[in-house]
Write a structure and sequence with these properties.
A hairpin with a 5-residue loop joins strand 22 and strand 23. The chain is α+β, with helices and mostly antiparallel strands. Helix 2 crosses helix 12, helix 5 runs antiparallel to helix 6 and helix 5 runs parallel beside helix 7. The chain is globular, with a radius of gyration of 26 Å. It has a seven-stranded mixed beta sheet with strand order 3-9-10-16-13-12-11, sandwiched between helices. It has a five-stranded mixed beta sheet with strand order 20-19-21-22-23, with helices on both faces. The longest helix is centred in the first third of the chain and has 20 residues. The protein has three domains: 246 residues, 2-Layer Sandwich (BirA Bifunctional Protein, domain 2); 82 residues, 2-Layer Sandwich (Herpes Virus-1); 94 residues, Anticodon-binding domain (Rossmann fold). The protein is built from 16 helices and 23 strands. Helices cover 36% and strands 25% of the residues. 34% of the residues are buried. The structure holds adenosine-5'-triphosphate.
Length: 485
């Protein structure tokens, strides 16, 4: 049976390692959980995704500019943003295995099991209790009570031996400077890139001659000490975000929010992700953060279920007003035409780079029967492919190598290429299929006579004979006209 969609992350984890997309961090020391390194293919794919996002945000919009703010920020930033007080997850420990869980997630899993077992009434009742947790005795106490009443056991050990539920702040804390280690030196690793944009709002306005509406885009690392992080690069403790804050006049925020939600959905499809695996899920009004007017997740159908890859939020004037309050610096905008002052509202688009990479790998993964064999192929958009062209001399002969090397040199100017002369041609094709290389060029003896080569297409394995002089053009056209199959 051909595989066109996966039901677990296993095959992606294993392909990522064997082909050099993604490795566990510090693997030779047993690894560091929820932290990953990108290998030679992974970094190429990552850069292509970053470039696609940067282009879609800054290059095609005259009114969106970029910044690259530092990871360390003044500690007051995180007080103003509300992270010191409120960026918490409720956690609970299994005393027997010493494993830590998110209390709300344990209950969600329990509800899922009840549904699977056909106990919909009980599941609805618990869902209601979970949704209203925090309104009775307080969040931790409410969650603890549900776990106790339902006798929910630890998934790994099966034990029913829990600690209390406690709030756990997800920010990594360290000390700044070498002198003392008191509370005054505390500094955080940023848990989101957005605040680096808000604190530069005035700088950008004063220097970039932008007028509302305008946006500021940024790609950068973020750090969260996630309680549960066991889903490969889906939930990491160090990850990368691509965020854009769009500053608008209050009153136009609803319209801008709708526009950005639509645009961002189109971007994911433009990456070649199949439309049926994407959906927009608006947050119900009663679940919105207190400052948010509207929010939606763009979700992808990962092998672990429908999950958020990007969030679109109408954050109102919350962040700018808070920074005004905490820094004492005015964050207003003066509209010269209308001669009025206001604090802009912000529509935010926030996409995880690593989750986007995982989405692309999952969506591209196929297993197909070919001549009684199974080929694994990554049918990703050629514009994202780490290697665009594989170049092979048919056999190891100096004359063939000479022409192949010449072609390699020429194509290198425009595309990422890989020269390979080891193993049978069939094996070389398979290796490139697994790496997602969309075009392979084979140089044979006929080519020495008439200056033509065979180009082989990854997706349908068709082959064409092409003059060497037209190769770049054929590859360029192939990238432009690509359609998902
Ligand atoms: P979740 O509910 O899945 O924890 P979130 O709502 O906390 O996500 P945001 O704060 O909106 O996420 O962050 C924006 C984006 O950053 C997310 O859509 C996701 O792609 C990415 N992201 C957030 N946390 C992580 C993480 N721990 N690992 C990888 N990517 C993440």
């Amino acid at each position: 049976m051909p595989v066109t969609h996966l039901d677990s992350l296993e095959k992606i984890v294993s392909l990522s390692k064997s082909r050099g997309f993604i490795f566990q961090s510090s693997e030779i020391y047993g690894g560091l959980s929820a932290v990953y390194d990108y290998g030679p293919l992974g970094i190429e794919l990552k850069r292509n995704v970053q470039n696609a996002w940067w282009k879609a945000m800054t290059q095609v919009h005259d009114n969106i500019v970029g910044v690259d703010a530092a990871i360390f920020m003044h500690p007051r930033v995180w007080e103003a943003s509300g992270h010191v007080e409120g960026f918490n997850d409720p956690m609970i420990d299994d005393k027997q295995s010493k494993k830590r869980y998110r209390a709300d997630m344990l209950i969600e899993q329990h509800i899922l099991k009840l549904r699977e077992n056909g106990d919909a009434d009980k599941a609805d009742e618990l869902q209601n209790l979970l949704d209203t947790s925090g309104t009775r005795k307080g969040l931790c106490e409410d969650l603890y009570e549900i776990i106790m009443n339902e006798e929910i056991r630890a998934p790994e050990s099966g034990a029913f031996d829990w600690t209390e539920v406690r709030q756990f702040n997800l920010m990594f804390k360290t000390h700044y400077g070498a002198v003392t280690k008191d509370e005054d030196d505390v500094i955080y690793l940023r848990p989101e890139t957005a605040q680096g944009i808000f604190v530069n709002y005035k700088n950008v306005m004063d220097t970039a001659r932008v007028q509302i509406p305008f946006g500021i885009a940024q790609i950068g690392k973020a750090f969260r000490n996630e309680v549960v992080a066991r889903q490969f690069v889906f939930r990491m403790r160090e990850f990368e975000q691509m965020e854009m804050q769009y500053f608008v006049e209050p009153g136009t925020d609803g319209e801008e929010y709708d526009k950005w939600l639509e645009k961002r959905m189109e971007w994911h499809k433009d990456l070649g992700v199949r439309g049926e695996h994407l959906r927009a899920e608006p947050h119900p009004e009663d679940k919105l953060a207190h400052y948010a007017r509207a929010a939606a997740d763009i979700q992808y159908k990962y092998p672990i279920g429908w999950q958020e890859v990007e969030g679109i939020h109408n954050r109102t004037d919350y962040d700018l007003s808070r920074h005004h309050e905490y820094s004492g610096k005015k964050m207003e905008y003066y509209d010269q035409k209308e001669q009025k002052r206001y604090t802009p509202y912000v529509v935010e688009t926030s996409v995880g780079l690593d989750r986007t990479m995982l989405m692309i790998l999952c969506d591209a993964y196929r297993e197909e029967e070919v001549d009684g064999d199974t080929r694994t192929v990554l049918k990703m958009h050629p514009k994202l492919a780490p290697t665009k062209v594989g170049i092979f001399p048919l056999i190891k002969k100096p004359e063939l190598k000479e022409l192949a090397s010449k072609i390699e040199k020429e194509l290198k100017e425009e595309f990422t290429v890989l020269y390979d002369e080891s193993g049978s041609i069939g094996k070389r094709y398979r290796r490139q299929d697994e790496a997602g290389t969309p075009f392979c060029v084979t140089v044979d003896f006929d080519g020495l006579e008439d200056n033509t080569v065979t180009i082989r297409y990854r997706d349908d394995m068709k082959q064409d004979r092409v003059p060497v002089s037209r190769l770049s053009e054929v590859i360029r056209d192939g990238i432009k006209s690509w359609k998902v199959i």
